[in-house]
Design brief:
By secondary structure, the protein is an alpha/beta fold. It has five domains: 75 residues, Ubiquitin-like (UB roll) (Roll); 150 residues, Alpha-Beta Plaits (2-Layer Sandwich), CATH 3.30.70; 246 residues, Rossmann fold (3-Layer(aba) Sandwich); 182 residues, Dimethylsulfoxide Reductase, domain 2 (3-Layer(aba) Sandwich); 130 residues, Barwin-like endoglucanases, CATH 2.40.40.20. The protein contains 30 helices and 38 strands. Helix 10 runs parallel beside helix 19, helix 13 packs across helix 17 and helix 22 packs across helix 24. The longest helix has 19 residues. The two termini are 46 Å apart. It is an enzyme of class 1 (oxidoreductase). Pfam families: Fer2_4, Fer4_7, Molybdop_Fe4S4, Molybdopterin, Molydop_binding, NADH-G_4Fe-4S_3. It comes from Rhizobium giardinii. In the C-terminal section; belongs to the prokaryotic molybdopterin-containing oxidoreductase family. InterPro entries: 2Fe-2S_ferredoxin-like_sf, 2Fe-2S_ferredoxin-type, 4Fe4S_Fe-S-bd, 4Fe4S_Fe_S_CS, Asp_de-COase-like_dom_sf, Formate_Dh-H_N, Formate_DH_asu, MoPterin_dinucl-bd_dom.
């Protein structure tokens, strides 16, 4: 497959519906009003030379290469900044234009190193291309091999200045090759919204700077790669290109990090990945990227990756490498033995939100058809299961209502319990662009996240609520809207049950829900609540985006319902620019839920007790499916400790590090007789495994992911699996070893089965996805093009349902022993439990988890910045270093959970959401005190982990 070429039209497309006809080089062309002459030319196949222009950014008009002549007008205007007009006649190629362009290019080249043969951009350099396009053959200005940025004479002293900046682990900055086109600066501003780069100096001394004389690593640069992608020369170049060379073919695939689901071109040399380039036609990211998706793919070839199956009798034994046949036969025999001895329900499985839809579907099928029970669960249990419950109850479907493009039409945004710049940076970039255009922002979060205040973005209201009081604050917003008559009566009467609304309205209007009363619980000033409510209700299109700070609470499902109530009351459902939008954490957490990974649901969110649904699968699979819901992950662990649950198949999930109350998880795993882990690395859960099956990366498989906007995107294989098999093949081989007659030859056949059994996927096939690019479910006869916006003419459940949301304080209370509240989250450079990103150069930005603590709380405890501190709760304790900051409020501390040496979940409790058992990660009462270093538990755990990762043969070789 050749390199996929994307046309750069020079300027963004116009959205005008009015059309304009003009003539360019004798060709009559009709385009939307507001289109630049450059874009009109490019769309007609007439290429205009350019260097400073890119369709990812607004027109700039600085390079002077794109000049054109317009009949009847004087001068030569820049085609990128000149809009089309009715009837004008444009010439893009005349003798006069040729002379001017050649002269302009001659000036550029006179101040540029001519090391093209050894330059990393040779063959992929726009400056080189444009020199050829304008016919430049020589330079008259005495080029001497050094340009003004690389060297200058100051009297008798030759001062070398602006050296090459190699500080960033992923790209270099060579100012000697910079033509000061400003594309990198504009990409940083307009595409990413970071504003880290600038042009310093004037005239001949102008140059790009990453800040106040900082290098790229020390600057505010977030390493999204937008500047590198925008650079037309070798000034900003990926180090991988320098080391490997230019790619020779590319494949479009989908990023396997967060739930945004960005499309990338994997650009290859043979089977070696050169770089990941964001695909402009990707409908989730529109050409945007972040540091993880753009650069952090090195884990796929990391030396610690396990490539051979391994087994051991006891978890204290070293691992023994075996063949695939032996590993799978052993696993099948162990599961059959356990079921024979302990009963059919003594085993189960956990699907992965990092694997494809097809792989997840097979795991739940294996549990139901092979093990004969419904003991299957997924990581959504510990993140977004309340989303499924809350939105299902109120709207009738367990997913977000909008596509990401919808943010371009919003007027007021509420962000609650989410940190988009760190957790979903590509969406954050698109949101920040809309905010710079004038949309208003309300942030509800205990921390002062970046979205509260960053360059050119400032929240109208920040509600720094006390952790655990989400329901009270959201209900108080509704109190203001109802008591001040700001609700949308027309929408409610048409789309919802009016009597249910009246009951809910009477409930939220009760005095104890007033902002003044809620201030006493939440710490949020009453006037901030009132101001935010009025803004959301009256500010135009209102959208709500939320994350794990909503769901990971004892009232997670209640908060989701309260958010849905708020959207319905203000009429903000069913059109672009509005809606309720969960920001999913992992790449396929939406898909893993869609595929029937919950113990009570078959694919498509249909309950296992429904006879008609079971009949569909029973006839196809040739088995009888239990009508009783199986065990959730916490129930499996409880049953293991009790002695009735003995075996588990865990695909691509590290429950020991990611699930709450680590000691309880380890006790449950240690009590089992056969723990099977299928993953890339010997993760923390594998410390307790008896069988290890090597996993494959997203680069090594075909399939689909479903992102947070319900978009089904193709994942395409770009290299041979280093372990021998894609994950779906491993599950199939295990099923065959257990006696099941599975014979899929390609994941497309699995998708065909999904489509045949799941109404919301009815029209989805690989051929259809190739044709459409991607689709958003439901995609069926009623919606053959998919459903970008849900609930357009009515709710899926019929009438939208208002539900009372009474605030019930968590059982986790602060007191004299534990006076602080701990909440947890993520950081930009790391992903989830860090198994992938910790094995890339992203560790440069986050070597360890730190405890954020307010200066007042730190001073009271004698803690200085960087000190080791002991973090203790009723569940356990750990140690980590302190980071003193005012981003957290007094009384609140915060940490990430990316490093297993920290084991933050030793601290978290076993309290959980009342409806779904989603753990209450976000509210833990703790105490912080000075410490001398790692705790004894951490020392013991590190030694146990080291012993558990011994591999026979390799262990002796190391000795």
């Amino acid at each position: 497959m050749p390199l996929i070429s994307e046309i750069d039209f020079g300027t963004p497309a116009s959205r005008s519906e009015k059309m304009v006809t003009l003539t360019i080089d004798g060709n009559e062309i009709t385009v939307p009003e507001g289109t630049s002459i450059m874009r009109a030319s490019m769309e007609a196949g007439i290429e205009v030379p350019k260097l400073c222009a890119s369709d990812m950014m607004d027109s700039f008009g600085s390079c002077r290469l794109c000049l054109v002549e317009i009949e009847g007008r004087a001068g030569m205007p820049a085609s990128c900044t000149t809009p089309v007009a009715p009837g004008i006649k444009v010439s893009t190629q005349t003798p006069r234009l040729k002379d001017v362009r050649r002269g302009v290019m001659e000036l550029y080249i006179s101040d540029h190193p001519l090391d093209c043969l050894t330059c990393a951009a040779n063959g992929d350099c726009e400056l080189q291309d444009m020199a050829g396009a304008v016919g430049l053959r020589d330079v008259r200005y005495g080029y001497d091999g050094e340009n003004h940025v690389k060297a200058r004479n100051d009297g008798a002293i030759n001062i070398k200045w602006s050296p090459k900046d190699e500080s960033n682990p992923y790209f270099t900055f060579d100012p000697a090759k910079c033509i000061v086109c400003s594309r990198c600066v504009r990409a940083c501003e307009e595409v990413q919204g970071t504003f880290a780069l600038t042009i310093e100096g004037r005239g001949f001394d102008s140059r790009v700077s990453a800040g106040m004389h900082e290098n790229f690593l020390e600057s505010e640069c977030v390493s999204c790669g937008a500047c590198v992608q925008a650079c037309p020369t070798a000034t900003l170049t990926e180090k991988s290109v320098i080391e490997i060379g230019q790619p020779e073919h590319s494949v479009v695939t989908t990023c396997a990090y967060c739930g945004v689901g960005c499309s990338f071109k994997a650009e290859m040399r043979g089977e070696e990945l050169v770089r990941m380039v964001p695909w402009k036609d990707g409908q989730a990211n529109r050409g945007h990227s972040c540091v993880k998706g753009r650069f952090a793919y090195g884990y796929s070839t990391h030396k610690e990756r396990i490539l051979n199956p391994m087994i051991r009798e006891k978890i204290t034994d070293p691992w023994r490498e075996v063949s695939w046949e032996e590993a799978l036969a052993h696993t099948a025999a162990e599961f059959r033995r356990i079921q024979y001895q302990h009963g059919r329900d003594s085993v189960g499985g956990i699907t992965s939100s990092r694997c494809t839809n097809e792989e997840t579907y097979l795991v739940q099928k294996l549990v139901r058809a092979g093990l004969g029970n419904n003991n299957v669960d997924t990581c959504a249990r510990v993140c977004h299961s309340p989303t499924g419950y809350g939105l299902g109850a109120t709207f009738g479907t367990s997913a977000g209502t909008q596509n990401f493009d919808s943010v371009e039409h919003t007027d007021v945004v509420i962000i609650i319990g989410a940190n988009p710049t760190d957790g979903h940076p590509v969406f954050a970039s698109r949101l920040k662009k809309r905010l710079r255009q004038g949309a208003k922002l309300i942030v509800i979060d205990p921390r002062r996240i970046d979205m509260v205040s960053s360059p050119h973005v400032k929240a109208s209201h920040h509600l720094p609520l006390r952790p655990g009081t989400n329901v009270a604050v959201i209900t108080s917003l509704a109190h203001v809207i109802v008591t001040e008559g700001l609700y949308d009566e027309k929408f409610i009467r048409e789309r919802c049950d009016w009597s249910e609304f009246e009951d809910w309205a009477a409930f939220v209007a009760e005095p104890h829900h007033s902002p003044e009363e809620v201030e006493k619980l939440s710490g949020v000033p009453a006037e901030e609540i009132r101001g935010a409510a009025r803004l959301f209700a009256t500010g135009g299109n209102g959208s709500i985006y939320y994350g794990l700070g909503v769901t990971e609470h004892s009232q997670g499902s209640t908060t989701v319902m309260a958010i849905a109530n708020l959207a319905m009351a203000t009429g903000n459902i069913g059109r672009p620019g509005v809606g309720v939008n969960p920001l999913r954490g992992q790449n396929n957490v939406q898909g893993s839920c869609d595929m029937g990974s919950f113990p009570h649901e078959l694919p498509g969110y249909r309950h296992v007790s429904d006879d008609a649904t079971r009949d569909i699968f029973e006839k196809l699979w040739g088995v009888t499916i239990s009508n009783e819901p199986g065990l959730r992950i916490p129930n499996m662990l409880d049953a293991a400790v009790d002695g009735s649950f003995k075996g588990i198949y865990i695909q691509g999930e590290d429950i020991l590090q990611s699930d709450p109350d680590t000691k309880h998880v380890s006790a449950g795993l240690a009590a089992m007789e056969c723990v099977v882990v299928q993953d890339l690395f010997l993760n923390e859960t594998a410390n307790y495994a008896h069988v290890f099956l090597p996993g494959s990366t997203f680069l090594e498989k075909d399939g689909t992911f479903t992102n947070a906007e319900r978009r089904i995107n193709r994942v395409r294989k770009v290299m041979t699996p280093r372990n021998g098999y894609a994950d779906w093949e491993v599950t199939q081989k295990l099923a065959q070893a257990m006696g099941l007659n599975w014979n899929y030859s390609h994941p497309s056949q699995i998708m065909d089965e999904i489509a045949a059994t799941t109404p919301s996927f009815a029209m989805v096939s690989y051929d259809y996805l190739e044709k459409m690019g991607s689709v958003q479910w439901p995609c069926n006869e009623k919606a053959p093009l998919g459903s970008p916006i849900m609930h357009v003419n009515g709710f899926v459940r019929g009438k939208g349902k208002f539900i009372r949301t009474e605030y019930v304080a968590t059982d986790e209370k602060t007191g004299p022993r534990f006076p602080l509240l701990l909440t947890t989250g993520r950081i930009l450079s790391q992903y989830n439990v860090g198994a992938q990103t910790r094995r890339t150069d992203n560790v440069v930005w986050h070597e360890e988890d730190r405890l954020e603590i307010h200066p007042n709380d730190a001073e009271m405890r004698g803690v200085r910045d960087g000190d080791w501190v002991k973090l203790m709760s009723r569940s356990g304790d750990t140690t980590l270093r302190a980071l003193i900051t005012e981003r957290v409020a007094p009384g609140v501390v915060y940490t990430t959970f990316h490093h297993p040496t920290t084991q933050a979940n030793v601290i978290t409790t076993d309290f959980s959401d009342w409806a779904t058992n989603c753990p209450e990660y976000k509210v833990t009462a703790v105490q912080v005190s000075p410490s001398n270093g790692p705790s004894q538990w951490q020392v013991d755990y590190d030694e146990q982990a080291r012993q558990s990762r011994r591999i026979a043969g390799k262990m002796e070789a190391a000795e």
